[in-house]
Amino acid sequence: MSEVSLSDKKYILLAVLLAVFVVPSSISGTAIALPYISTDMNSDVASLQWVVNAFNLTFACFTLMWGKMSDVIGRKRSFVTGACLYALASAGSAWATDILWLDVFRAIAGVGGAAIFSCGSALFIDVFDGKQRTQAFALFGTTAGLGITLGPTISGILLVLSGWQAIFILHAVVLVFVLCLTIKLPDTRVAGKPVSEIDIIGSGLFISSMFLLMLTLSKGYDWGWSSTLSLLCTSGSLLLFLVFVWHIRRAENPVLSLSLLSNNRFMGYILVPVVASFTFVTLLTYFPTYLTGAMQMPASAAGLMMLCLTLPVLLFPLIAGRLAAKGVPSSFLMYLSLVCMLAGAGGLLLGIETMQTVWVSGSCLFVVGTGMGLSAGLVDGEALSCVEPGDIGMAAGLLNTFRLGSEAIAVALYGSFISSALTTLVAEQLTDFTLADQGDWVTAMASGNASTLIAEWADDKASILMNQVTEMLKIAFLTTNGLLLTIAAGVSVVAVLKLRRRRTVRSVQA
């Protein structure tokens, strides 16, 4: 590309960072609005979960494709297209009057979010070099952490002042400003890249496979895990994935090269964000509902409580970067990150089981956030330093696919596990109610709105029901997070084993 002026670099930096701030703040902030959306739209548990799942699914699935698109149609054009999609989808979400349309708009926003992250980082690679590039990516990571940190707090304030629609209106306004910043910026299309290099077939197969898997995970408890629909969706997902593997083995320009999967160090690094998905991300998404449901916290207080989890993600990437610069091995920091995430999540479960104070829970959340922060600032650079220069773009796409795909799967599993657990507990303990009423109680508890049903009863009965609901929510929360923690521990073992092996290719500077 031609030389970019200093003023243009500043505009690019500001535009990308503002857009990057919106995406994670949308993810963390939307979670705290779920009970309000449920009340306003009278939605069932599965449809409500897709407000989060739809965004995560499309975000994860389109990352690889957007990376390829930026090589063909240009970094700026791809970034602007993604920002435009996100702005329009956010405006649509604010004015959605039906939960189905809200899910659709959130899915479109996920497509735009994938472009913002993958094409925004590609813009930085083209525009900055040397020390400027290091500083730009440090700001990239810090801004993402800031979005995660402030998302629940900003959303909590908007919920109190206006309503859940204001959250999406704010996202749309910020991204319109981003689009204004990018109008006169130069494009960075890579010369000699034909449109035929976009692997549409491979991308379609991968997206379809992921969609059927997510559909099974989110609806499995409703359909029954051994029902015909669940088995068909699972079989279809597996079949499509096998066809995807067959395709990329034979395609001339595949969306993914399987050679990356044999790189042990690279695979070890990209498994660290998977552990974060099953610990940090699931707590970020659903713990606010536990706080407002089981602990009866107002939305604003729940948002402040979540700062214990999100604040370290703002601070510790910078700390980890300085430690690495002073010679602390990056692999040691990864091990420390894994230990913190597992120990914090385990401590939180123990604290809830023993009815410890919110200070204990807050401390455990802080430890989980610390583990996330230690790896968030390093894992991308260290993973990409393990691959050949010609594979860096594809490797970045695979890294983000692992990160975002595991987030989508972890969040979907959480929703299915906790709904299944609550269904069993309600059937055992609320035997005076009909099956339809029991279904209403499951929906209300899973969405954090059980107090609305309890308020319909006299004080003596309401007190008994509140105690029962609190106990059921605690058991369901412990069971669900115990299962997810077991998965995270298994992935951590694999990550450590791979990180301890020698690099399979020579180290290069990413």
From TrEMBL:
Any idea what this protein is called?
Answer: MFS transporter
Keywords, A to Z, come to: Membrane, Transmembrane, Transmembrane helix
Location of the protein in the cell: Membrane
Lineage of this protein's species?
Bacteria, Pseudomonadati, Pseudomonadota, Gammaproteobacteria, Vibrionales
Q: Which residues form the Major facilitator superfamily (MFS) profile domain?
A: 12-504
Q: How does it sit in the membrane?
A: Multi-pass membrane protein
Q: Do you know which PANTHER family this protein is assigned to?
A: EXPORT PROTEIN, MAJOR FACILITATOR SUPERFAMILY MULTIDRUG TRANSPORTER MFSC
**InterPro entries linked to this entry:** MFS (IPR011701), MFS_dom (IPR020846), MFS_trans_sf (IPR036259)
Q: Transmembrane region positions?
A: 49-67, 79-101, 107-125, 137-161, 167-186, 198-217, 223-246, 266-287, 299-320, 332-352, 358-379, 408-427, 475-497
